[in-house]
Amino acid sequence: MTAPDSVAARAGRALSWSLINTIASRLGTFAIGIVLARILGPQEFGTFAVALLALFAVLSFSELGVSLAIVRWPGDPREIAPTVTTISVVTGTVLFLLVLAGAPVYTAAMGAPQATEVIRLLAVNILISGLLATPAALMQREFQAGRRMVVDQVGTWTGSVLSIVLALAGMGAMSLAIGRLAGAFASGVLFVAFVPRGLRFGFDRAVARRLLGFGLPLAGSSIVVFAVTYLDQLIVGGALGSVALGFYLYAFNLSSWPVNILSQPVRQVAPAAFARLQHDPPAMRRSFTASTGLLAAVTLPICLVLTGAAEPLVRFLYGAAWAPAADALVWLGLFAAVRVMFQLVYDYFVVLGSTRIVFAVQVVWLIALLPAVYAGATLAGIAGAAAAQLAVALLVVLPWYLWELRRCGIPIGGLARQIASPALAAVPVGAVGYLAQAWIPLDIAALAVVGVVLLAALAVQARRVKATIRELKTVGAEPAEPREVPTP
User: How far is CA 123 from CA 12, 29, 130, 133, 285, in A?
Assistant: First the structure.
């Protein structure tokens, strides 16, 4: 009988809350994003995209990777929390000052000097992130996904509503920056209220050495992960201009829906769940394999819809002015399916402590990506950049990840069996989407046909998903092997 506070039970509750939180947040921001796209247009959004890339770059390593140590720390995390907070705040402050000074150089290189002040305002988010790194990690460790939902929803809606009001008032790209900062501040207040012990400062040299030994490789990996994730956008912005970047970014955001809605909740829970199973490697491996099948079942059909029905989808959601974004979405929809799986693999290796493997894979990925995306962008515009992303992921990164997983005891045949059924269900969905956009001139009618086929494909996978969830709930419920009861 499963104990009420078993890892499986707590992770299951956290996953449910995290899924609700993510769906609510993404649906809200999706609707608001459509409104803002129609108010601002590609030019203003392109300016904001240039600034946002700079923020994401700094946030990718702003606390040197030490906050994740709280999630996987084998002992009481309170013994390291003050040191983590100190490192995060000091690092965030230094980076904030560097961004203020370097913003003009970056925007000039991107051909968007009008984004300089937007970047400087967004940089305040770096200070907030450093201050809240520990409370956020403690909340994740304790599976407090219900409270995290409150934090995220307040931040999302505060920032989004304010951005719309300011955009209607004619503030352009600055409206998005002010809204994002306001949302971060509102979320920060709630983080402090929910996890007040996360803001204790202190510094223990021995703890700091252990934290940096774990965190620095991860921080280096995070920088490379950022480059891998956003290099295509940097190249598109630098080579093709901010307007092309606006088109590409909206295509990327739309392709990220399966990643954000379906993968992100799992990523909020999986590292902590994997960490609790470190004493039981077979259970940990079973949990990873089952999670891979679950993600494939719910994401692959949706990713194929994005690819097959790209043109009517973009026109219907954002308007005819954004139609060029469909050229990139065709390829980014397929790439999204690969990204979902790669993110889970990344989290698994981090919990195993194999951060050097993660770093090596990301470095090779980046080296291969740079010439491929640049060539694709210069030869075929935003479509070429997106196609290059997919090619490098399939030909370079996927084989390496599979090799490393096999070395860690993950059966590749088992993974293939988990993914085969969702893949077979997804292919007809993509084919129908392609035929519908070619033969049905009315966008809403084409999308209606595709939607019916998508629902049918997901229904076929529903029974399999339920079985996988039941399997995940049993993982970690019992000890890995029978143990003798000590004699008094």
Answer: 36, 21, 12, 16, 40
